[in-house]
Amino acid sequence: MLATIVHTDDLVKTVVASVVAGVGLTAVFSVAIWGGARFVDLSRGGRPLAAGAAATVGVLALIATLAAVVVGIAVMTSN
Amino acid sequence: MSSEVILVIVVGTALAFDFTNGFHDTANVVATSISTGAAPPQVAIGMAALLNFIGAFISIEVAATVANDVVDAAVITPTIVFAGLIGAIAWNLITWWFALPSSSSHALIGGVVGSAVAAAGLDAVLAEGLVGKVLIPAVVAPVVAFLVAGLGIGIAYRVTGRQRPGPVTRGFRYGQVVSGGLLALAHGTNDAQKTMGIITLALIANGSLGADADPPFWVIASAATAIALGTYSGGWRIIRTTGSRIIKMDAAQGFSAQGAGSAVILASTHFGFPLSTTHVINGGVMGAGAGKRVSAVRWGVAGNIFVAWLLTLPAAAAIGAVTYGLTRIFGTGALGPVLVTLAALALIVAIFVKRSRQGAPVPAS
Known about the structure:
The complex is a heterodimer of chains A (79) and B (365). Chain A has a domain at 29-79. Helices cover 90% and strands 0% of the residues of chain A. Chain A contains three helices and no strands. Chain B has 365 residues and is mainly α. In chain B, 79% of the residues lie in helices and 0% in strands. Chain B contains 13 helices and no strands. Chain B is elongated, with a radius of gyration of 20 Å. Chain B starts with a helix and ends in a 7-residue tail after the last helix. Chains A and B meet through helix 1, helix 2 and helix 3 of A and helix 6, helix 7 and helix 10 of B.
């Protein structure tokens, strides 16, 4: 009875989606910023290979962030 | 003829409420971006208005909940909806006056529930919908936003903590352009729909739409326009409370708070939960503050906001019930709503004149 009133299934899905999307977005974007900051430092330090690797990680994380935003909007607003 | 007049007044009042909702909630959407310096105020507010407008067209799940799951449409009349709207607008203005970021959404639902109970008794309330789709999510959502933002900022600091602060801050400021936009979009998807739901409920109550009907396009478009205009008009007093009085935020915290708020609101919209976006966003702001340092949150200010949250549903319900009683003094026709509307307009003008004489509030720096 209580489960029916509270719409437990929908509520749990909402909580899980919120945690995954909210924490994931910040985590992935933090990696993008880490990549960018490391790229600048390593480039200045004369380590082009490591700088390139950091930049690649940063760009991939940035793409993942933007993709997560687009996919998140598409999924959460569709029924 | 009389019912058409009341319906026109209800639609006008609902759109006025939608405007005040946007006006009241501008702070929620843009305060973090402004307080961290991620965007100049006018840019942030303009972008928020545009994305609120777009967001209003994305989904109708919340509108369906408000129209069909909170009160019994079979016993609702346009006058009941009108009285509920007046209750919500009055509470919005009271909290705006005292610069408290309370919930426009709970004010709306409280107002309609209060006037419905005054008119038709407790049987008019659909307890399952009210508890399951409004009250429980109202408690859960801000807590989830708090935890998500706290967890997010912890990860962000761990990942970027050893880097030079300059590039990291700049990066998160750029990120806030996206997260702030996402939050504005999410706000439009959830909040504009409540007005759509209320107008749809009035149209069903008037017999202009069938039971369980979706909002017509003109309702969606007008609600989107009203909330966008209200957002653009902005509410500087509340921006100060949300943006700088709860915590002093850095850009990473702003990003985390906005990301958490967006995720919770969009997920809730998907399942048709008419959330308080104010509660969720402030939950995210507090979580981002507590994630860095629990003492960074000014818990006294947070406590005042919490009290406003607790008061919103019963206060709006009481005003809605009293308003319904006032309209009934003049019978069941259009005279009551017309007189109450005129009185409300006069009161609103008086409030704004008094406020403008006291001088414009200072925005957060």
